[in-house]
Amino acid sequence: MKEVIGKAKLLRCPPGTSLQDEGRLSGAKYGIPSSGAMDQRSFRWANHLLKNTSNAVALELSQPGLQIQFTQACLIALVGANALVNLNLNKVSNSSLIAITAGDILEIGAFLSGSRLYLCIQGGFQVERYLESGSDFESITFPFKRGTHDLLTYFSYPQSQNLGAKPKWVTSWFESPEIETYRGADWGLLSLAQQELIRSTTFHLSKFSNRMGIQLEELVSNQLKELPTNPVFPGTVQLTPGGKIIVLMRDAGVTGGYPRILQLTEEGQSILAQKKVGEPIRFQLLA
Amino acid sequence: MIPHYQVISPSFGELVWDQHPTDELLGFQLAYLTFIQSNFSDTLVEVRQGFTRISLVWKNPKTQLEFSAQLKNIKLPPLELSNTIWHVPVCYDPEYGQDLNALAKSKKINPIELIQVHLEPIYRIHFFGFLPGFFYLNGLSPLLHTPRKSVPMIAVPPGSVAIGGNQTGIYPMQSPGGWHIIGRSPLAFFDSKQPIPVWAKPGERVQFVPINASQFRNWKDTSPKSTSP
Predict the structure, then answer these.
(1) How far is CA B87 from CA B90, B102, B197, in A?
(2) CATH 2.40.100.10 matches A176-285
(3) 3-class SS at A214?
(4) Is B132's CB within 8 Å of A183's CB?
(5) Average pLDDT of chain A?
(6) Residues A32-63: tens digit of each pLDDT
(7) For chain B, which domains are there?
(8) Using a CB-CB distance cutoff of 8 angstroms, which residues of chain A are in contact with residue B125?
(9) Choosing among B18, B43, B46, B196, which should be mutated to test the A contact, i.e. which has the most A CBs within 10 A?
(10) Which residues in A lie closer than 8 A to residue B189 (C-beta atoms)?
């Protein structure tokens, strides 16, 4: 296929914007975190819609306010949070697939539901990969986050104007408070009363939430000792001596010393990644 | 030291040792890691190592069940640990070790004694974690075990040598951190532009070598030196 190099200019870029993909699986032996899209389900769906390879690099947004201009025609998908989207100041009603022509300006407004939006492009954004991943991370990729005036490179392919039937992105799957989880490696250290409390409590997301981890408001008091430092993963739920529950997310370090009480399923991690500060969650333990 | 296997999810589990971290346990862990890499790497998504666990993420649940059933028949001798010692220069001047004096005071010893106690052991590298290129070292004297700060520092400078809990470690890059900073090394500990971004391997050892503030400021070569006695 004949391709032309296109540039996407970030005319205005809110904080918490980064390039992400499936993540970096072979870096743990050097202490390098997984990284990758916080909501892998939405990320994968976006690449599927574009017929991309599964690891094509996408822009992850965690706040409204992006204004982006494309120098060449391309096909993009917006998946994840349900956001207000304008193309050249006109409201886009179904933004799951958008055909862009050269010079178009796209704006992302308020997130009506959800917390993370993926802007994927046909062929993926072109970046240098480290350990097979293009996910931004400090000291690993340069730059490690994206800001206003940055340029992103992509390949512009000849476009057919007919997109066919546009799939409608639904968000109901992440609106339920239920988060599926396995018992973590150290679940057995909890008392039966603590286990029951964790199963039955409706927890709420605190404002201490980022790509490294999401801390919950409610405390679970415990007398557990600090343990030898051992492996943790995205979705590992830690219980601190102060009773705080921290769900580790994609940029968390690869090891930790707090008891690892739960391990969220990948679906559970994707749902949690779409929750806003203050929203309720309940842990659903799987057999 | 035969581990048992704990299944956590259909495609994820851990080799579990109940002992405390020691050189002997590390030798067994490295033997199991080598065995797993040579026999199961095609069927694994990811392997992670900690002080007393090795975590395995499998491509499919059936292989995890097979591995877990086989495990009790796998009896491996420990791997002999490397005799390589990396010499890591550290400046313990309070300019670079801003918590040194307060930590010494809390231990009721003078800062010189604290430095001597920290310099005494040759530390064993068990694995990397917390930050890219951050060594988990075993061997800190119990005299220096100190709970982490209740309020972490926003930006610990790269190269900072610190004590937290029963550990000592070196921050490879600027990071928030709750450990007590007692010095700084002029070496580079992580470089993602290198094919292998770290220079040491689990099983090797680290010896801290004191340098003064003027040596620190004039230090040119950020790559480390090692010996193999």
Answers:
(1) 10, 27, 18
(2) yes
(3) strand
(4) no
(5) 94
(6) 999 999 999 999 999 999 999 999 999 999 99
(7) 4-73 (3.30.1360), 85-227 (2.40.100.10)
(8) none
(9) B46
(10) none
